[in-house]
């Protein structure tokens, strides 16, 4: 005889155990609030481990630590994706954060004033507060015409690409000219003729590689721009927010000159297929053996069964606070408050702001609660 399990009650549930979720957990613990972090991966840090093998962070270790625990490595070192994963795992252990792995939330709704979360194994949770600590994009996006390509062409999304050994002999087309496409393009161009298709996203007008003293100044300037200047509170930030959300971040590490030097051919957008090959906007059809789709991700919030999403599928919020559903919050979204909001060095400010907002809802749980400040006034 099957028995129905009662939902488990937790005052605050954080969905997602990446840098955004762990940052939220750290600041909730600082506020002395009970919470649990639910993560779909089997191991903390898997969202980094599952990316391509040669990936390194754009920032050196000085800027790669979360609140309360620096990233320990030599100065001016760019961590690998596996080292970042290991850091997140060590961070969880160091602060004894209550993370439950292998727990994918498949539905979020509300009943009688409480949030109801249903996990993939059927387990249910009730909560007064929910923090969705995930990026805007969750599911790989591939255009519909991908299915019309010749069956002999190897197709991968950047989410599934690990290294060139996955590719067959012959030329490679990367569709999507953002940072992922550019970095993977330089890598595969070492062994194959490579084409990079898409509209340019722009690039920062200087190199983030070079002499340490010069690099430190450049990175401090970038951090100031992304963290302090380009925010929803500034006119330039609001303009850039629309641009970044629609076209992506400018190229940071790989520049157009480096793509050219590596032998990567820049071509217009891929708009369809012709005779089984990829058709470019200018009418050319490329003869390639491999296609890597660097076309981003779908907005993966359809599991949120609450009236909080706009027509384009994005959460409606003010600096992470959902006004129409008190108790619901977001952290880790691209440009949630600033251009740095989804970055390792920027997510902590938003997480602190949200933790204080939650504390203000449950003041009895605290000895003392600071007033909720604007994220712009919270110093990391």
Shape: globular
Total E-strand runs:
18
**Residues in β-strands, percent:** 15-25%
Helix content: 10-25%
Largest sheet: 5 strands, parallel
The largest sheet has its strands arranged as 4-3-2-8-18
Measured on Cα atoms, how large is the radius of gyration? Answer: 22 Å
- Classify the secondary structure makeup into a structural class: alpha/beta
**Uncertain segments:** 364-380
In terms of topology, how is this protein built?
Blueprint: E1 8-9, E2 12-15, H1 19-30, E3 35-38, H2 46-49, H3 81-94, E4 99-100, E5 105-111, E6 114-119, E7 124-127, E8 129-133, E9 137-140, E10 154-157, E11 172-175, H4 179-188, E12 194-197, H5 212-229, H6 235-247, H7 256-262, E13 264-267, E14 270-274, E15 277-280, E16 290-293, E17 297-299, E18 328-331, H8 347-361
Helix pairs in contact: 1-8
């Amino acid at each position: 005889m099957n028995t129905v399990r009662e939902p488990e009650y937790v005052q605050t549930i954080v969905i997602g155990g990446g840098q955004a979720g762990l940052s939220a957990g750290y600041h909730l613990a600082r506020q002395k609030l009970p919470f649990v972090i639910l993560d779909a991966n089997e191991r903390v840090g898997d969202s980094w481990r599952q990316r391509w093998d040669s990936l390194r962070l754009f920032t050196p270790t000085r800027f790669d630590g979360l609140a309360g625990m620096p990233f320990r490595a030599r100065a001016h070192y760019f961590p690998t994706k596996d080292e970042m994963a290991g850091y997140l795992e060590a961070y969880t252990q160091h602060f004894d954060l209550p993370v439950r792995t292998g727990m994918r939330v498949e539905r979020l709704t509300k009943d009688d004033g409480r949030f109801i979360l249903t996990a993939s194994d059927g387990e249910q949770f009730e909560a007064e507060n929910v923090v969705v600590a995930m990026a805007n994009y969750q599911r790989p996006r591939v255009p519909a015409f991908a299915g019309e390509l010749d069956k002999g062409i190897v197709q991968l999304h950047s989410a599934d690409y690990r290294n060139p050994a996955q590719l067959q002999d012959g030329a490679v087309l990367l569709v999507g000219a953002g940072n992922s496409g550019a970095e993977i393009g330089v890598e595969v161009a070492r062994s194959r003729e490579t084409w990079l298709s898409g509209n340019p996203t722009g690039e920062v007008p200087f190199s983030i590689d070079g002499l340490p003293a010069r690099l430190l100044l450049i990175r401090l300037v970038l951090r100031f721009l992304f963290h302090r200047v380009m925010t929803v509170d500034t006119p330039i930030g609001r303009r850039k927010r629309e641009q970044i959300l629609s076209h992506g971040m400018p190229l940071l590490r790989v520049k157009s000159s480096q793509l050219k030097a590596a032998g990567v051919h820049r071509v217009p957008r891929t708009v369809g297929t012709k005779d089984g090959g990829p058709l470019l906007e200018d009418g050319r059809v490329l003869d390639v053996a491999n296609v890597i789709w660097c076309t981003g991700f779908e907005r993966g919030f359809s599991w949120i069964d609450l009236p909080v999403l706009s027509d384009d599928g994005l959460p409606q919020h003010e600096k992470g606070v959902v006004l129409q559903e008190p108790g619901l919050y977001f952290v880790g979204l691209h440009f949630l408050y600033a251009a740095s909001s989804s970055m390792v060095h920027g997510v902590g400010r938003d997480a602190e702001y949200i933790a204080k907002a939650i504390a203000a809802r449950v003041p009895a749980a605290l000895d003392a609660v600071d007033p909720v400040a604007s994220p712009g006034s919270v110093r990391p």
